[in-house]
Design goal:
By secondary structure, the chain is α/β, with parallel strands linked by helices. It contains nine helices and eight strands.
């Protein structure tokens, strides 16, 4: 395997630290978001590890300070401080774990549109260096995105229709200073037999090629430089494909149909939300399966920054780093 800017062991250590921080958290008493906004409530440990890897990758590129080409020694060095804005933090649990792992002189303002999720996040996680604020990323103007060195968009872009994703990229570019960057992550469909999982909350699911095409289109992406990297694990990919083939795709399609019906009828929407919340509460309290092989999964994890275009078969996640260079 090719050498990396920090290497697989260092990346695995970051994932492990964020995982350990997440596992220390008590489960939230609120169960209003089955889409994964309360990731600490999930019984699927593979999914939790996948999300921890996203935040570890963001931590890695922010540390490097020269994410557009990690092998180029002429790129700028990491500044002494980082002021980070996260869009779409959900319950805040993963952001809290990330904040525990980041350098002490970094700060994070984590935002979401859901006031109920934010209320829980403020009560449970807010501390020096980490605050939570309400912000709807679909309508936030460039002035609200001003004053930050980097914007984090962790597994959010797939929840946006293409026009909203394009608008967010333009507003983020306008709000960031010269040298500012955006780090976005999303799942990678390259290894799956279907181009879309059918998962109801997702509008678009990307492959390495489709995300690279989006970011390479200057009509859609105003950032002057960008790179798309990959999160690798043959085991996570194989297990995810198997789970989707063995009923996961059918469940997603049925849920999508129920969501479509509920959107047309307010009464059905209220009933669906109520039932979904109760079912998720019951599901999340079932006894956890024994024997999750954390060390085995960790040993397969890597963050490919050297030749990501060659790793379709064992890529489960995409990490895009966009930099604004113009003043």
């Amino acid at each position: 395997m090719q050498s990396r800017a920090r290497g697989a062991p260092a990346f695995q250590a970051d994932v492990r630290q964020i995982w350990d921080e997440l596992r220390r958290l008590e489960r939230s008493g609120e169960y209003g978001n089955i889409e994964g906004g309360s990731i600490e409530q999930q019984r699927d440990k593979r999914l939790q590890l996948h999300h921890c890897a996203n935040y570890a990758a963001a931590l890695s590129v922010l540390r490097q300070g020269h994410p557009t080409d990690p092998t180029d020694p002429t790129n700028p060095t990491d500044p002494p401080n980082r002021r980070l804005l996260e869009l779409g933090c959900g319950s805040g649990a993963l952001t809290s774990a990330f904040a525990q792992a980041m350098p002490d002189n970094w700060t994070v303002e984590a935002t979401d549109y859901s006031e109920s999720l934010l209320a829980g996040a403020r009560e449970r996680f807010e501390r020096d260096g980490l605050i939570f604020s309400r912000l709807d990323l679909r309508s936030a103007g460039p002035d609200r995105l001003d004053g930050f060195d980097a914007i984090l968009l962790i597994e959010v872009i797939e929840h946006l229709p293409p026009d909203e994703a394009d608008g967010l990229l333009r507003r983020a570019y306008e709000g960031l200073p010269a040298g500012g960057m955006m780090v976005l992550t999303t799942l990678d469909r390259s290894a799956f037999p279907r181009p879309f999982s059918g998962y109801a909350p997702h509008f678009v699911e990307y492959t390495y090629r489709s995300l690279s095409a989006l970011l390479g289109d200057r009509r859609r992406n105003p950032f002057e430089t960008y790179r798309v990297f990959r999160l690798l694990s043959e085991r996570i990919v194989a297990d995810s494909v198997k789970a989707e083939e063995h009923g996961g795709y059918l469940v997603n399609r049925l849920n999508r149909l129920a969501l479509s019906l509920s959107c047309r009828h307010a009464e059905l929407g209220a009933l669906r939300g109520w039932a979904e919340s109760r079912l998720f509460r019951l599901y999340s309290h079932l006894p956890e399966r024994d024997g999750f092989d954390l060390e085995g999964y960790l040993a397969t994890l890597d963050f490919e920054q050297t030749e990501p275009e060659k790793r379709d078969r064992d890529s489960f996640g995409l990490v895009a780093v966009l930099r604004k260079t113009a003043a």
